[in-house]
Amino acid sequence: MASYLEQNQQRFLTELIDWLRIPSVSADPKFHGDVLKAAEYLKARFLEVGLENVELCPTAGNPIVYGEKIIDPALPTVLVYGHYDVQPADPYELWDSPPFEPVIKDEKIYARGACDDKGQVYMHVKALEVMNQDGGLPCNIKVMIEGEEEIGSNNLGIFVRANKEKLKADVILISDTGMLANDEPSIEVGLRGLSYHEVEVTGPNRDLHSGLYGGAVANPINVLCKMIASLHDENNHITIPEFYNNVAVLTDDERAELNRVPHSDDEFKKSIGLPDTYGEQGYTTVERIGIRPTLDVNGIWGGYTGEGAKTVIASKAYAKISMRLVPNQTSEEITQLFQQHFERIAPSGVTVKVKPHHGGEPVVTPTDSVAYKAAADAMETTFGKRPIPTRGGGSIPIVAMFKSELGLDTVLLGFGLDSDAIHSPNEHYGVFNFLKGIETIPHFYRNYAAAVKG
């Protein structure tokens, strides 16, 4: 296996780079043609590695790329999930190289989608090719790669509910997460949920001259800033009533176990150029990221932002606000609480509109399952040390959906790093990580098939 991978690693990288050149940005309609082009590219690669019944499954939005290889119905089946759409690359001027002109520099692949999630999806495609050259597949494999993860996977649940027989499997395998370090492998066993909103604050019926009207009318931008500031108290505790009612509280022993994860606040601060950490009082950085809910402003705008000066009081101000949720919270509950609270705290001089976007549920995956052990053993084989189970701060809402709709647990076998700058300018993915993923994934399949067979 290693020799075939070594002989073909440059070709694997070249193919990935060709895919990364396609700007499959799902959030911006102007890239719709490129999203479809990226799906077609992946479909062709599925066929090349021997997947069967390969198709672009239509949805109300972007198509799902599907393929399978059923070698024996009596063997276990692994359903691989990932996504081929990517985040917008804005602001382009902050990239050191164009986001859709991939370059390899310092053993890292720089491009939008390099890590999230095209690079990690492509590991699975090439792992199939490697296995075909080294004894074939040890179990059945189904692969489902969607094109709307970055905009909430609105059509994936519909597709899954309509295709339960097609997607019937024994476990889900996802590589859309990360690990602690290249010399410290880990497997994420927990993910936070998400509640995402856009808010609009409206004041006067038009932009006003700030000299003629300033001080006599509510300025929507000022009001919005005050409202946002009030959402945290002096201890960085979220002030929305009942927000914490259902938050799962870990025992002291569970918190101690969580904090055994190798972590240095000094390295954490240095990696993102900050003088100090910041967050909810009474919790460590590891806990703030993994087991506590958060509220963050993801964007805020209004008024004049062009060159020079324009003294106006804007008619409207806007913000995008997201909350990361932890076990026992639900996106429906938090969405309702946020909307009610934000409308309630608005002063009388403005009107407020809250528009919920997508949400997702928090999950904790089992560490005592056959599939988890197969993944841990696979990483131990290729990294030379046992991976550490960790809780991630991000959200993959479909993990909870797979459990509720298909009854399947998920293994989050990711190879990214926190330093890969996903969703940011200069996103990158290590060549080491890409190749190590291709090397490790076949071991998972073999371990899993052998364990289930008994």
UniProtKB/TrEMBL annotation:
Keywords for this protein: Hydrolase, Metal-binding, Protease
Keyword Cell cycle appears in the UniProt entry: no
Parts of the chain that traverse the membrane: none
Superkingdom as given in the UniProt entry: Bacteria
Gene3D superfamilies according to UniProt: 3.30.70.360, Zn peptidases
SUPFAM superfamilies tied to this protein: Bacterial exopeptidase dimerisation domain, Zn-dependent exopeptidases
UniProt key word Metal-binding: yes
Residue span(s) of domain Peptidase M20 dimerisation: 198-348
GO molecular function: metal ion binding; peptidase activity
Gene Ontology biological-process annotations: proteolysis
Annotated PANTHER family: BETA-ALA-HIS DIPEPTIDASE, SUCCINYL-DIAMINOPIMELATE DESUCCINYLASE
Name assigned to this protein: Beta-ala-his dipeptidase
Organism field: Hymenobacter swuensis DY53
